[in-house]
Amino acid sequence: MARANREMGAAVAGIEGPEAANGREPAAAAGLRGFSREELHGLLADMLLYRRFEEKAEEAYAIGRIGGFCHLHIGQEGLAAGAIGPLRGDDLVITAYREHTQAIAKGIAPRAVMAELYGRATGCSGGRGGSMHLFDTTVGFYGGHGIVGGQIPLGAGLAWAIRYRGGDQICICFMGDAAVNQGAFLESLNMSAVWRLPVIYVVENNGYGMGTAFARVSATEMEARSGAYGIPAHTVDGQDVLETYRFFEELAGRVRGGAGPQFVNAITYRFRGHSMSDPVSGTYRSREEVESQVEERDPVAILRERLMEAGLLTRGELEALDAEARAACEDAAEFADASPLPDPATLYDHVYAEINPHGRLFLDGRPGAPTGGRARVDGGGRHG
Ligand SMILES: Cc1ncc(C[n+]2csc(CCOP(=O)(O)OP(=O)(O)O)c2C)c(N)n1
Ligand SMILES: [Mg+2]
Q1: How far is ligand 1, taken at its centre, from the CA of residue 133, in Å?
Q2: What is the whole-number distance in angstroms between the Cα of residue 207 and the centre of ligand 2?
Q3: pTM above 0.85, yes or no
Q4: Contacts of 231 (CB under 8 A, 6+ apart)
Q5: CATH number for region 3-345
Q6: Where does residue 22 rank: exposed (0-12), middle (13-18), buried (19+ CB within 10 A)?
């Protein structure tokens, strides 16, 4: 949620100016500049919610409540909070399959996300999508895509639609590091640059595509990938949520103002296996590597420690925020568990295009079909 939209107000926490008697601010406060105490607590609360949500999903998967694929975002929460947080409600986000926390960050309720993971009718995609296909256009969240790189041309299309309709929104198109080797990435960046589209391509660079290190499949650094199209490249530390937030707040403003497409290499790390069925470490990365990242580069711990050192967060406040996050996730799981499965009679809904009474697809601007006017382009025959 954008800072200006946060309910908590903008009272300044006393970190705007020099605090110490010697005129030098404490080291811990240095990175906090510009954020109010309420905003800092809000960002911590967001990340705690994302962490607890993923842990709950992990637990539900382990006991068979969630089926199919399930990719957790644990370790990468700084990007959901820091990149989506500064966006406006009507801005658009499209992403890959590691997207539970991004969906929540954009405004889908934890209940609707969890119910989707459970495959229930109350899920944000009606229980038809599951973990990889979370979707809710009413909050500007366009999925949830399981084909590596499949969302990139769609992201360009969303940005083109914004331009075509004369809007001033922007689109963030997330992808993993492995996606930049897909042909669709190159084509999309090219056309985005030619049309100067309002889109920010963000690579969540966790260093690996499944078990393959990026360095093994790239002859260049990540930052070099957008240069051929004249798209500016930026690098941000995704584990530092405050740096990430500030960076995206500024960049989103510039893109909204007409700066054209941007490419962001956001450095992060995945603390779990590629998916629920993969080991955390093993053949492609050592246990020591993972442990040192968890110990030193946990985005939740980094913010928490900074706030405590600066005297802006007490142990009691932390416990209260965490209890709230856990309660929201518990509630989401209970809601999902109690929700019905989709009605089998609706199996073919959203599969066939609807046509209007004139026998045309809804591409000609005519009013919609009368109620009950569902028809199939192929003239029927469910199995045709
Ligand atoms: C076109 C395509 N090829 C291969 C796969 C199988 N696959 C699923 S995830 C994945 C790795 C993607 O890694 P990355 O883009 O870095 O995202 P991360 O999992 O690290 O978030 C691959 C190869 C796929 N889903 N789609
Ligand atoms: Mg990756």
Answers
A1: 14
A2: 5
A3: yes
A4: 189, 192, 193, 201, 260, 261, 262, 263
A5: 3.40.50.970
A6: exposed
Listed residue (97, 87, 178, 167) closest to 134, CA to CA: 97
Of the candidates 84, 91, 262, which has an alpha carbon nearest to the alpha carbon of residue 168?
A: 91
Angstrom distances, CA of residue 34 to CA of 21, 84, 271, 292: 20, 18, 30, 30
Report the alpha-carbon distance of residue 138 to residue 301 in Å, rounded.
Answer: 33
The per-residue pLDDT for range 180-191, each reduced to its tens digit, is: 999 999 999 999
Q: Report the DSSP beta bridge partners of residue 201.
A: 173, 263
Mean pLDDT along residues 246-256: 98
d(CA 17, CA 310): 13
The full DSSP string for 277-338 is TS-SSSSSS-HHHHHHHHHH--HHHHHHHHHHHTT---HHHHHHHHHHHHHHHHHHHHHHHH
DSSP characters over 41-80: HHHHHHHHHHHHHHHHHHHHHHTTSS-S-----TT-HHHI
Q: Which residue type does 43 have?
A: L
215-246 pLDDT tens trace: 999 999 999 999 999 999 999 999 999 999 99
Residue 336 sits at the vertex; the CA angle it makes with 57 and 122, to the nearest 5 degrees, is: 120
Q: Is 174 in the pocket of ligand 1 (CB under 6 A)?
A: no
Fill in the amino acid letter for 116. E
Closest of 71, 64, 50 to residue 118, by C-alpha = 64
Q: Which two tokens stand for residue 165?
A: 């309709």
- CB of residue 76 inside a 6 A radius of ligand 1: no
Q: In the Cβ-directed half-sphere of 124, how many Cα atoms lie within 13 Å?
A: 30
Q: Rounded distance, CA 355 to CA 367, Å?
A: 11
Question: Residue 372: CB partners within 8 Å, gap ≥ 6?
Answer: none
Ligand 1 mutation pick, 74, 102, 148, 214, max ligand atoms within 8 A of CB: 148
Tens-place pLDDT, residues 102-156: 999 999 999 999 999 999 999 999 999 999 999 999 999 999 999 999 999 999 9
Q: Kindly report, residue by residue over 54-95, the tens digit of the pLDDT.
A: 999 999 999 999 999 999 999 999 999 999 999 999 999 999
pLDDT score at 33: 85
- Domain boundaries of the chain, sorted by first residue: 3-345, 352-384
